[in-house]
Design goal:
The complex is a heterodimer of chains A (about 325) and B (about 200). By secondary structure, chain A is mainly alpha-helical. Helices cover about 75% and strands about 0% of the residues of chain A. Chain B has a four-stranded mixed beta sheet. The chains are: A mainly alpha (about 325), B alpha/beta (about 200).
């Protein structure tokens, strides 16, 4: 007797990942397109602090106990993060100094941008030296070229950092998937390809929309952050929606997707952190740093609840440190 | 390593202690709304006029002068969005561009067979893209037609509407006999037998 079997359609985990990613992006695009200011306030309140904590946790797990032949690389990487972050915060704090003219302020900002690109170029070069049969000395002309652009149009340069930073997280995820979940790589590439489609839909929908209201300090700062003053010909609704869309994906990558593909990034698995678990490690220091990070997240929530505008300003001044910290670890993964 | 971490932490803490200051609050956008004067504008096409003239009543110029004083503090912010390039920027960006070309040329010549074809292609595409972007700044500024570059009656024709703007030389005058701003626009009659 012949048995008839009905084939059950089954989805692989990669397909589920792709469908979930696209569905969430669609919902997100709808949300930020409809309520850009509200979504901006809500996402930063909910996720900004946690995503910093998750990044710190991820970097702690990736930091080797002994730097070995990467000693120069990590020294320059971490040293650069500290120096550039301190310089950025100093520039931020001294921005109201009456001794500084507009020209000197612009020159200092451009100098900081130059230091940033030269530092990144140097990290690429050092990383290239560690790879067999690699010559990454192209990093220097590239860094000089970007430094020239930073001086030519510092405002556009600074704005480009705001919009490009979310893509760093996506790059991190790509490298991580290659290492720990290669079967998801193709699906992830399709996910990345869907992002320009959503952006295009947002732009087409919002291009002719009126500007967002700027009648409160907070609304004004949100639109400024998205570049409404630098790009006055573009609807601020479109700019804010684009920024919030990319930033929210950035948060989702750090909080959800990276722990999903790399179990070493799950916050409570402290045994996966070499600096913590190794006999010659620094368990107390790591634990204290993680507790402090958790405390900062709680303080941020409190600050946002009490005075959202001021806390947002302070957060973005400090947040440059995490942007900088991403570079050494990302380049090391190449 | 412990020493390096301790030193780095100390540097970071000290830099914050030395420089921590509450940032100057950003100017409120509400202030900008105060810097306006509600008035009337009358546009008059004049066949006899040779130059465009904008007549502003004396009383309103006084108000504007008073508001100029108030705006002093915000001039810095207005200027911050100018996209012009000053001398320092030109010198430094030119130097970096030269360095990029020199180092890029050395790398290109040195790399020989070591660099992958993809790497070289990527470098060439990057350079062309950057050069293309720079060329856009220089060339993508084609002017509008002459009708939109002089303030005449032709500005109000549908042919100029598609540009959405117009500009031209204008004479500013102070008027004492009117309470509204008046814009006199020359409207020369078309030459007989000329193309309409």
């Amino acid at each position: 007797m012949q048995e008839i079997r009905r084939a059950q359609p089954s989805l692989s985990t990669a397909q589920i990942f792709f469908v979930a990613f696209v569905a969430v992006c669609a919902l997100l695009a709808l949300g930020v397109g409809s309520f850009p200011l509200q979504m901006s306030i809500a996402t930063i309140f909910l996720f900004a602090g946690i995503h910093n904590f998750m990044e710190f946790r991820y970097f702690a797990a990736r930091m080797p106990l002994r730097w070995g032949r990467s000693r120069t690389y990590y020294s320059i990487g971490i040293g650069g993060v500290i120096v550039l972050a301190a310089a950025y915060f100093s520039l931020y704090c001294l921005s109201g100094n009456w001794l500084w003219s507009l020209d000197s302020w612009g020159a200092l900002t451009a100098s900081w941008n130059t230091a940033l690109v030269l530092w990144i170029g140097l990290l690429f070069y050092l990383r290239g030296n560690q790879r067999p049969k690699s010559d990454w000395s192209w990093a220097f002309p590239a860094a000089f070229l970007f430094a020239a652009l930073a001086w030519m149009s510092p405002l556009y340069w600074s704005l480009s950092l705001v919009y490009l930073h979310p893509f760093l997280a996506m790059w991190f995820l790509e490298r991580q998937i290659r290492r720990t979940k290669p079967e998801w790589l193709h699906a992830y590439h399709l996910c990345l390809a869907s992002i320009p489609v959503f952006l295009l839909l947002l732009w087409v929908t919002l291009a002719n929309q009126p500007n967002l209201p700027e009648d409160t300090d907070l609304f004004w700062r949100i639109t400024q952050h998205s570049g409404s003053q630098i790009l006055p010909g573009i609807s601020s609704r479109l700019l804010v929606a684009t920024h919030v869309f990319l930033e929210t994906i950035h948060y989702a990558v750090w909080i959800l997707l990276i722990p999903l593909v790399d179990f070493r990034a799950i916050p409570w698995k402290l045994g996966e952190i070499p600096l913590f678990s190794n006999k010659s490690g620094f368990p107390k220091l790591v634990l204290a740093a993680l507790c402090l990070s958790g405390l900062i997240v709680a303080v941020l929530w409190g600050g946002f609840a009490i005075d959202y505008t001021t806390t947002r300003d302070l957060y973005f001044a400090f947040a440059m440190a995490h942007v900088l910290a991403e570079f050494p670890f990302l380049i090391k993964m190449l | 390593m412990k020493r390096a971490i301790s030193l780095a932490a100390m540097l970071l803490i000290l830099s914050i202690a030395a420089l921590a200051d509450i940032a100057r609050p950003q100017p409120s956008p509400k202030d900008a709304s105060k810097r306006t004067i509600d008035t009337m504008l009358m546009i008059r096409l004049d066949h006899q006029a040779k130059d465009a003239v904008l007549k502003i009543p004396k009383s309103q110029i006084r108000q504007l002068r008073a508001q100029l004083d108030e705006m002093d503090s915000s001039e810095r912010d207005t200027a911050a969005v100018t996209t012009g390039i000053n001398r320092t920027q030109t010198i430094v960006s030119g130097s970096f561009l030269s360095l990029a070309l020199v180092f890029g040329g050395i790398w290109f010549a040195r790399s020989g067979n070591n660099a992958s074809k993809t790497g070289k292609a990527l470098a060439i595409v990057t350079i062309l893209a950057c050069a293309g972007s720079a060329a856009t700044f220089v060339l993508a500024n084609a002017g509008p037609p002459t009708e939109a570059r002089s303030i005449t009656g032709k500005m109000f024709t549908p042919a100029v509407h598609m540009y959405g703007f117009g500009s031209g030389r204008i004479r500013l005058e102070t008027s004492t006999d009117s309470e509204s701003i008046e814009l006199i626009v020359p409207d020369p009659k078309p030459a007989p037998g000329g193309e309409e």
